[in-house]
Amino acid sequence: MRAMSDPTPYTGLPFMKMHGLGNDFVVIDARASAVSVSADLVRALGDRHRGVGLDQLAVIDDDQHTDIALTFWNSDGSQSGACGNATRCIARREITLTGRDAITIRTERGILHAVDAGDGLTSVNMGKPGLDWASIPLSEACDTLHLPIDGTPVATGMGNPHCTFFVEDAEAVDLPTLGARFEHHPLFPERTNVQFAQVVGPDHLRMRVWERGVGVTLASGSSSCAVAVAAARRGLTGRKVRLTLDGGEIAIDWREDGVWMTGPTAHVFDATLTAEFLETLLK
Predict the structure, then answer these.
(1) Are residues 110 and 223 in the same domain?
(2) How far is CA 46 from CA 24, 51, 156, 176, 241, in A?
(3) Distance between CA atoms of 81 and 4, rounded to whole angstroms?
(4) C-alpha span between 264 and 84 (Å, rounded)
(5) What predicted TM-score, i.e. pTM, was given to this entire model?
(6) Which helix (H) or strand (E) covers residue 15, if one does?
(7) If 122 and its partner were Cys, which of 92, 168, 206, 243 is the partner (CB 3.0–4.6 Å)?
(8) Average pLDDT over the chain, rounded to whole?
(9) H helix runs in 11-131, sequence order
């Protein structure tokens, strides 16, 4: 047996584990540790029995014109254009590290702005929603406020596609079955996130979510933005709402400059992947 004082023989890849309302992430800071992320690496990390476990993986990079750049991967190894909760978690870390009260972030959907909202909360402007069929995108032209799908859901683009059903009782929905079914609906050529939302009051929604490439998640920032936009477009709520998700509550404010998302974050731990784990991906 090796003496406990002996240094570990493993050297590997540092990472952070974070979550926003239970929507959990592995975050790799590529500014500190150069890394080439592959779909195999994401899937291996995402395995909650043999890896770390994650809904999404986020990579932080330098950027010439913003404070940081982010890229996102789903647990199935596919890439995602947006991940609101991960963006908020990473923004909180950067704000804390730099001592600033605001930062800019480059993502696939453009430059996002994040600010310290006080009381430990962080706000991110997730940008303006896509409301026409081509920007979501859909496979054909149609009314995005009343899709030709059973249940007449609403389609919204928030850097990734969203399909929102308004129901009488969100708790009664068979989310695993219906989420999987509608994620792959032919109207969504890039698949879609699926939400089932219940109107609780003029400024309060109950939402459950199925994320494309992941499955059922406790929360989703971009989905929360999409549901708030869909509800306002339908005239079910105002443009400033509170959403109750399986993992907690988030506030959404659809303003002229974009959809602002405000909520808590958690930086759970820092760790290092062993060389032994990484080498298994090469076999």
Answers:
(1) no
(2) 10, 6, 27, 19, 32
(3) 44
(4) 12
(5) 0.93
(6) strand 13-20
(7) 92
(8) 94
(9) 39-46, 84-98
Tokens (6 digits) for 279: 């080498």
In sequence order, which residues have a C-beta less than 8 Å from that of residue 17 and are 6 or more positions away? 24, 25, 26, 27, 52, 267, 268, 269, 270, 271
pLDDT digits (tens, 9 = 90+) for 173-211: 999 999 999 999 999 999 999 999 999 999 999 999 999
User: Does 206 map to a domain?
Assistant: yes
Rounded CA separation 72/70 (Å): 7
Q: Count CA atoms within 13 Å of residue 86 on its CB side.
A: 26
Q: Model confidence over 207-260: pLDDT tens digits?
A: 999 999 999 999 999 999 999 999 999 999 999 999 999 999 999 999 999 999
Q: How many CA atoms lie within 13 A of 212 on its CB side?
A: 25
Which residue segment(s) compose the domain that 83 sits in? 13-125+265-280
Six token digits for residue 260: 């602002």
Question: Burial code of 72-85, b = ≥16 C-beta within 10 A, e = fewer?
Answer: bbbbebbbbbbbbb
- 77: which 2 tokens? 């190894």
